[in-house]
């Protein structure tokens, strides 16, 4: 998958790159996701965000218009994402729900989400899509 990760801190770079193992076309940038930096998501299928990135209706619309289909947050919380509007746009949304919130665990969960989407599997507890999909029967609970 073609992926851009926003708001990457220095300590996250190595763990995400190692977890990815060159499977996905992964671009890591330190900028936050906003309307001024959305250009980095052009041509990408997935954006990975931090809890500091506020994905409101306007930003979700802009992501949708440039072809982004999936969003992963590197956090337990999805409060910074307008899930209702993401559902209206049929955007897939996932988080990193493990209680282990170490950088290594978050990186592994993030890449696992990408891998499961490639394999057309539901993400189980990480799935925050607000629409019914046929893959829910293939859940990785």
TrEMBL record:
Keywords: NAD
UniProt xrefs under Pfam families: 2-Hacid_dh
Superkingdom of source: Bacteria
Domain D-isomer specific 2-hydroxyacid dehydrogenase catalytic residue range list: 8-99
Keyword Signal: no
PANTHER family named among the record's database cross-references: 2-HYDROXYACID DEHYDROGENASE HOMOLOG 1-RELATED (PTHR43026:SF1)
Protein name: Lactate dehydrogenase
Organism whose genome encodes this protein: Sphingobacterium bovistauri
């Amino acid at each position: 998958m073609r992926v851009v990760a926003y708001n990457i801190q220095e300590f996250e770079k190595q763990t995400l790159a190692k977890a990815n193992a060159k499977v996905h076309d992964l671009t890591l940038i330190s900028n936050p996701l906003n309307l001024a930096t959305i250009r980095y998501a052009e041509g990408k299928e997935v954006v990975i965000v931090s809890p500091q990135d506020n994905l409101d209706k306007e930003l979700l619309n802009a992501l949708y218009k440039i072809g982004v289909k999936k969003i992963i947050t590197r956090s337990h919380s999805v409060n910074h994402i307008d899930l209702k509007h993401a559902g209206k746009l049929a955007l897939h949304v996932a988080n990193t729900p493990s209680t282990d919130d170490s950088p290594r665990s978050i990186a592994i969960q993030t890449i696992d989400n990408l891998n499961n989407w490639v394999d057309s599997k539901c993400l189980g507890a990480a799935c925050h899509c607000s629409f019914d999909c046929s893959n829910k029967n293939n859940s990785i609970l």
